[in-house]
Amino acid sequence: MKGKMKGKMLNNFSLKILSIICAIILWAVIVNIYDPTTSITIPGVAVTLTNTQSLTDKDYTFEVVDGSKISVYISGPRSIVSDIKASDIVATADLSKVTVYSDYVDIEVKISKDGVSTSSLEVTPKTTAIKLSIENRVSKTFNIQVETVGTPDGGYVVSESKISPTTVKLTGSASTINGVNSVKATYDVSGASMDIDDTAPLKLYDEAGNVIYDTKIELGKTAVDFKATLLPTKTIPIKFKSQGDVAVGYKLTGIDYSSAEIVVMGTEENLKKIDSVEISANAIDVTNLNANKDFVINIKTYLPSYVSLVSDSKVTATAKVSVIKEKEFNIKFDSINLLNVPEGYSVSYGNVKDINIIVLGTESIVNAVASADFKPTIDTGNLAVGVNSAILNVTLPTGAILKQTYNVELTLIKNKDTTGPTATDNTISATTAIH
What we know:
The protein has 435 residues and is mainly beta. It has six helices and 28 strands. It folds into four domains: 37-127, Beta Complex (RNA Polymerase Alpha Subunit, Chain A, domain 2); 137-232, RNA Polymerase Alpha Subunit, Chain A, domain 2; 240-323, YbbR-like domain (RNA Polymerase Alpha Subunit, Chain A, domain 2), CATH 2.170.120.40; 326-429, RNA Polymerase Alpha Subunit, Chain A, domain 2 (Beta Complex).
């Protein structure tokens, strides 16, 4: 009886095991039907760096070159996986694991969502490590340059500006700090009409003059104290003088100036004392010049101490020198206008009918001279009866001169009667003289 019972129990145990296996299989089939396994890839998961002080404490700086945002592969029951978002994923890289032999740090990911068991999920980062750029952390002190921009109001200018402190310490990676060429404190004075006491922000510039925007650079100060003094201005003329004669055979045709006035600043009382600035003649000495020459004049040396220069301190005076050309012209005596011939008298040139004159000037001026423009005249008002030597006067264009004084020999003759002149050829009486 006992043997029969034992055999029956063994037979039932096998059935029980088989039932359990069948139940498991049935459960798996049901789960797979109603909550199947699925997978998704979630992009844009930010990687958080931990233990960053392990590098900074050793005077290193770092920058993530690659791997700051990654994609994460997740596989598991659809009921769980479909509810997971990028914000539910925690991705970290422990910088304490960085060694001197590697600049890569492994990325660890996990799900951080209430009620979700990561044991039932497969969570794998597509990018397994971040890449770092690690450099020595350095500090460098820069002198601060001060500059103002804009235009003050009402003709005022900034006469003096200063900052405090005058230096600033920058800290960052060696390559970043080496890229800084200058530090400036810039203040906009637009519309100002009184002294300024304020703060000015600091800006970093590279060698090309571009502003550097890098939040990883630490500044000992981001702004400095700024003070500026404003003064009124006045525009005054420059009075030039020159001295000397150019070389023989040359002519000084003119002097050009890069500026004929300057702007000075000072107190209102001192500005009333000055109306012009005079340049001494020895500043522009044209003695023996045979070519154009520039004279650079430092205006500051001619200003009184109670005013200061606002405009450019250098003015250039260009002395223009040209070669003198000469050209000969013929003047007929019958074209000469006799002036002030006494009543009852005549003028005779004898047998001479003309005279040659030489005109001097630059090539362009001489070439422009024409005989018809001379309008020759002789003043006979002070001549005595008989033979005289009278000066010939001609009209010349600006820049042209006669090589010498030209005299014409003529005879002043008293008429014997009023019926007409009795003189010889080339005689002009008072009644027929051209006035």
